[in-house]
Amino acid sequence: MPRIDAHQHFWQPARGDYGWLAADDPALVPLQRDFLPADLAPVLRVHDVARTVLVQAAPSVAETEFMLALAARHDFVGGVVGWVDLAAPESPAQVERLASQPALKGLRPMLQDLPDPDWIAHAPRPEAVRAMLAHGLRFDALVKPPQLPALRRFVEAWPTLPVVIDHAAKPPLAAGWDDAPMQAWRREMAALAAHSQVTCKLSGLLTELAPEDRGSCARILERLRPVADALLAWFGPRRLMWGSDWPVLTLAAGYDEWVAVADALLMPLAIDEREQVLHGTARRFYGLAG
Distance between CA 229 and CA 289 in Å, rounded? Predict the structure, then answer.
């Protein structure tokens, strides 16, 4: 079945704007090298991935321009999700300029890294969000559970802005399904799903698992099936899209393993419903060609 990878990254650490990647964290050492189209293209061919969505990994306009240049040279990149500081005075003009390039499909502030969990609810300039709407851009929400209440207020304030929650908001998988942290995640995700403009990515979950839970496919499925089932119940196949989060994925597993896990999680669905999660939702949400 053909796929769209709705969430992947490229980067060159020597460019100097990946602060999180330069952090003194031994766990990130495997990611501290170039990851570029030549590294990913062979994997995409193996898994019949026709298009990808290339998502920002640095809080800079310069990285967005770097990604747009890559998209212009590589047909498999169907769209780019870039970055603009939506709170800055110059943000409306930056949105206007970047949106002149058709490959730009959306913007993503790195909300999970901001010290203020309520930033998205009060900081963005209304004229910047209106510029996004005027140019048909989407909003990728890189959030963890503490940012979900503020994201809900943002969604309610901008009911016509298409929003997608990256990595299912990184549920607290170390907690039990009925423990307080998971209950809070479930409550907020269900509330967000009640807004029809909100979509969710089935991505980034393997790296949220504890290392001991990644040891076998059976154990991974045991831990992730309740999450996938809940996302399907809240959003439905037409508002859920598959993505790899490559190369961050490689900290936990290979591309092949995530494809196999996702296919197993989606197997109970009808074929047309699986098609929506694997390519239809992303094509429709991001307005991708082909």
Answer: 29
